[in-house]
Amino acid sequence: MALKDIKAKIGATKRMNTVTRAMEAVSAVKMRKTQASALSGRSYARAAIAILTRIAGTEAVKKHPLAKEREVKKIALVVMTSDKGLAGGLNSGVLKQASLAAKDFTKEQVLVYAYGRKGEDFFTNRGYTIVKSMENKQDDVPLSSMEELSNELSAGFLAGDFDKVVVAYTNFKSTFEQIPTVRQLLPLSLPALAEVVSGIVPAKGKWSNEQSLEAPASYEVEPSADEVLGVLIPRLTAIALYHMLLESKASEHSARMVAMKNASDKSKEVTRDLTRKYNKIRQAAITREVSEIVSGREALAA
Fold this sequence. Notes:
Layout: H1 3-40, H2 42-56, H3 59-62, E1 75-80, H4 90-102, E2 110-115, H5 117-125, E3 129-134, H6 143-159, E4 164-174, E5 177-186, H7 190-200, H8 225-301
Parallel strand pairs: 1-2, 1-4, 2-3
Antiparallel strand pairs: 4-5
């Protein structure tokens, strides 16, 4: 490789390092913000979903249309990914889990609700039906957007458009660990809800010492179980969706920050290796030129 080419490559690598460092700094700021939102909302989300867990075993809920188990002929698959890449294996992990959730069904039996362009592109290119696609650009997503999605999913389930609702998202554990996860949202199931609640509390950290929530012996619902549950269940499922979205956003910015840091470190390493190679070739050229000059002088002297 010529010295000119090596020098150009060093310059390009340094410019790339400048870009990745800037993206790393931006992602670090967003990471701290989204992590704080996800962690601060865990207690509320856990308590809200625990209410569903507590009442899921009652007769009133068992008779509710949103809790009725039936033969699964079609499923609604909610996929939460990012709109942008450069986040390591974050999106590929979620899409892999989503594909596994849909593998037992034909493409006609899977209705996809894509929250994020990566998920939309993935399933569109594979011939799946995209019922609804939503952008995932803003970090401050209002709860109302998840309430709208929850109402659509509840209405579709009640209308028989699909018989099961599952959500594929990334569960945030730490800055360096994000776990692709699939959870059942509808029909309401005591084991599935208990699994969601158990997944909210981190293994370590501020909320790790929270005690398990115990259900009371019975509930008295006023004015009527149907009226209250008709409002309560969609509201609490919206909170569950919102919690999953916050976890996904914290995971996205954490993964992108780590990916950009790795890219910055790698670019420094490449620059260092190229500079060493450049100096080595340049020194060899200088030595060769000096050798030629000395040889020529000695030939003239002879």
